[in-house]
Every structure is written in structure tokens, then in C-alpha cells.
Amino acid sequence: MTTPDDRRLPLDGLKVLELGQLIAGPFATKLLGEFGADVIKVEPPGTGDPLRRWRMIEDDTSLWWHVQTRNKRSVSMDLRSHEGQDLVRRLVAEADVLVENFRPGTLEGWGLGWEALSAINPGLIMVRVSGYGQTGPYRDKPGFGVIGEAMGGLRYLTGQPGEPSVRVGVSIGDSLSALYAVIGTLLALQERARSGLGQVVDIALYESVFAMMESLLPEYDASGEIREPSGSALPGITPSNAYRTRSGDYVLVAGNGDSIFKRLMQVIERPDLAEDPTLAHNDGRARQAERIDAAIEAWTLQYERDDILARLDAARVPAGYPYTAADIARDPHYLAREMIQSITRPNGKPLKVPGVLPKLSATPGRLGDGGPALGQHTDEVLDELGIDAATRDKLRQAGII
After folding, report:
1. What is the mean pLDDT of residues 363-389?
2. DSSP H stretches of helix in 57-129
3. How many Cβ atoms are within 10 Å of 262's Cβ, its own excluded?
């Protein structure tokens, strides 16, 4: 799996076994693979990861698949069979990290829980992503990202006041959990470098969301106040909102810094607000948010979006507008930062995909190819375990691989 260009990647030589599907666990291993880890993705024979069939499909493959599964090797293996479980144990013996996102207890039922696998490989780091974590009264409940977003407090805050809450248009709960899974993996690797021992990294979807909720809990604890939905505004931080333009679209303006606020008020020709001592600092502005927002929108309604943004840019006031996919694909800053990359799919067609993050100056990550075909690397990986062709044929005939 390693090429000459990969030798300087930070995680080169790290072997990661992925026993998971869909979003959270596989997103975490995608990030590890982009920085050099050899990620072996285990999928059920015949069907594979359900993500292969999610959202827009071309040539029987999800376009999402080419992002989520780049830099991985696909092995088809039936984990419900004793033979498949034995193969996992052999892979674990040589792995550094195992990432799984089954419901808690599933791997234990297959004889592949932490106690069993750490006995095989004491240095193994087992990253477990689930809806509610490996402990607690809810551990056995099924949990998807949207439920974690709701329990974590995010869903209640999204939408307009007095209207039903809405979900973020992407699987943000899963993605946040994946980021915490990667952080936990790197921390566990650091500890293993000292002690030689692995450990369990326990990631819960709802906790990953809850960790992003800023002062939600302490505000409630101190005052009993429950933060409510606020539409496009950011409560307690003023001004930071969406404002209508003359053509009916919106601009986003974040003028909540003290000096930025003064510059913004000069641009909208409201020096009275700029010099108002009650508005000099954020706490005072937050108490008069409606007054300030009304003044800003009275100005933005006079101009087209691009004119507004040009005026605010000239005054060094942070401003923008909600980007669509089309805006992203043609934006010169995205292109200059190499965040729009192109791969060639198995059908020969090019496909634009997001670039690699984070950006490292000396050892930047790799883009790699699109996602592999189901079981594309089964023979290769099992051959590395010393399993000969005749044995592989028998396993294949039995439906194990």
C-alpha cells in the first residue's frame, strides 16, 4: 500500500483495521488513511458497506463512496461466521488500531470484544464509536447521528423561533464523532509509545455533539435559562446575522468585534451607533440586538449582494453569503488552497472531491484514488497473512470471503 511518496507521511507504517460501515467509523479511518495509515476495510460479502448505495449513484456506486473510502483496501469477509472471525483475529494480531461502530455488544457476541482481542495483541488500540457509548443505561439502544444531534442539544437550537427544529443538512453528529475518534486514536498512540499498551477509545455520538455546545449547560446551571432557537442570529453575540439584500438574497455579516462594529456602523452611515457608549462592547450590543440588526438590514436592502460584500471587504468587516456547491466548485480561494481536487473513477471519468485536511507543511496528506471495489484487496491482504490461494478458494466457495 505504501508508495515512495507516502514514506514521509506521519502515519506511514500504521496498520488500521476498520470493522464498520456508513459514516462515523469509516470517516475516522479515511482521515487516518489520508496521512499514511494502511487501512484495511472489512465489508460483508455480496453487499458491502451500505454507503456504496447512499445518495447519488453512478455505475452502481455512490459518488460519496469515492470520498469516504479513499486510501483504503477492501476485504470482503463474513464476520458472523467462525472462519471470518478467525480471520479478524489474525488481522488483529498485526494491527495497531481497530475502528468499529457496531452497536455495543455486537463484537462481544462474535468473540471479538476488547478482552479477547487485547489478549491477542496487548498493544491494540480499539476505537469504538456508538450512539450512546459502551456504558450507561442507553448503551444498547440503536443510535444514528441525527439522534445524537438531538440528544446532544444541537437539534433544539436549529431553526426559527416558534417553528419546528430542523436538522443540519449533513451528518454532522457522525462527522464530529469521527474527529474525536481520530483525536482519541492519536492520544492512545502517544500513550502506547510510552507504555507499550493499547486501550479502548470510547466515542458516543451524542457526547461529540454535546461537546460543541459551548456555554449551553453552565448558563442553565447558573440561571435556569434554556437557550432557544434564534434563526440566523447568534444569541448574545451582536451583530452576527443574515441580512436581506435588494435582490432578495442574503449576506452574512459578523461585526461583533468592538472595533469591527465601529467600522461597520461607519459603512452603513450610522455614526450615531458607532459612537453610542452603550454599544461599545458586546454585552451592551447584545441587549440591543434588534435595534442594530434593523439598522444593518435597512442598509443592505438598498444594495445588491456583491456591492455589499465589496463595501464591507474594503472596511475589513467579516462578511459573506451562503455558498452552494456551485459556489464552492468555482471559488478561487478554494482552488488556491487545493481544497478542490480531482480523481479518476474506475469508469475513467474525473470527479471533483474535497482536498485533504489538516494541511501540514512538511508531511501533507495524500489524496489517493477513489473507493475500492468490494473485496478488491481480499486476496492481497489474506496473502499477506500467509493464507494460500487454495485456502482462499475454499473460503470463497463457502461464502466466507
Report:
1. 93
2. 65-68, 82-93, 106-109, 114-120
3. 17
Please identify which of the residues 6, 49, 174, 293 carries the catalytic annotation.
174
Helix (H) or strand (E) run with residue 205 in it = helix 205-210
Contact in structure between 240 and 256 (CB atoms under 8 Å): yes
For 319-327, which contacts have Cβ atoms below 8 Å and span 24 or more sequence positions? 319/251, 319/252, 319/253, 319/254, 320/251, 320/252, 321/249, 321/250, 321/251, 321/252, 322/242, 322/250, 322/252
CA distance 264 to 273: 10
Task: Report the relative pairing of strands 72-76 and 97-100 from DSSP bridges.
Answer: unpaired
pLDDT-derived band at 18 (thresholds 50, 70, 90) equals very high
How much is the pLDDT for 60? 86
Q: How far apart are CA 311 and CA 314, in angstroms?
A: 5
Mean pLDDT of the chain: 94
C-beta separation of 279 from 239 below 8 A: no
Cell numbers for 388, please give them. 494460500
Q: What is the pTM of this model?
A: 0.91
Task: State whether residue 218 is helix, strand or coil.
Answer: helix
| Coil, helix or strand at residue 241 | strand
pLDDT for residue 2: 42
pLDDT of residue 7 exceeding 70 = no
Three-state secondary structure call for residue 185 = helix
Q: How confident is the model at residue 253 (pLDDT cuts 50, 70, 90)?
A: very high
Active site residue 174: yes
